[in-house]
Amino acid sequence: MSKEKKGGESVAKFYQVTESKIERTRRECPRCGKGVFMAVHKDRLTCGKCSYTEFQKDQTKKTKH
Ligand SMILES: [Zn+2]
Predict the structure, then answer these.
(1) Which sign, positive or negative, has the C-alpha torsion 22, 45, 50, 29?
(2) Please, which residues bridge with residue 26 across strands?
(3) Is the pTM for the entire model greater than 0.85?
(4) How confident is the model at residue 24, as a pLDDT?
(5) Integer angstrom CA distances of residue 37 from 44, 47, 60
(6) What residues pack around ion ligand 1 (CB closer than 5 A)?
(7) Which one of 8, 15, 58, 63 is least enclosed by Cβ atoms within 10 Å?
(8) Residue-wise over 38-51: b if at least 16 C-beta within 10 A, else e?
(9) Whole-number Å distance between alpha carbons of 65 and 60
């Protein structure tokens, strides 16, 4: 039988995952508003403009049930 490769589908899926990941990581500063992204650190986000800091919950550890 023929095995069809649906490359377009997997690419679209990969893109969607990547995009959401970026969106989650890159956050705009609530103080400075749109266009000002916060720097991502190990467990926190900081704004380079106003030094606003926001601590993150460990999103990397998802093995806990
Ligand atoms: Zn700021």
Answers:
(1) positive
(2) none
(3) no
(4) 57
(5) 13, 7, 21
(6) 29, 31-32, 47, 49-50, 52
(7) 63
(8) beeeeeebbbeeee
(9) 14
Q: What is the pLDDT of residue 7?
A: 58
* Secondary structure (3-state) at 13: helix
The residues spanned by each domain of the chain are 27-58
Spell out the per-residue pLDDT of the chain, length 65, in tens: 666 666 566 667 766 666 665 555 678 999 999 899 999 888 899 999 999 999 977 655 666 56
Q: How remote is the CA of residue 24 from the centroid of ligand 1, in Å?
A: 17
Q: How far is the CA of 41 from the centre of ligand 1 (A)?
A: 15
**Contact partners, residue 40, CB within 8 Å, separation at least 6:** 25, 26
- Cα–ligand 1 centroid distance for 55 (angstroms): 14
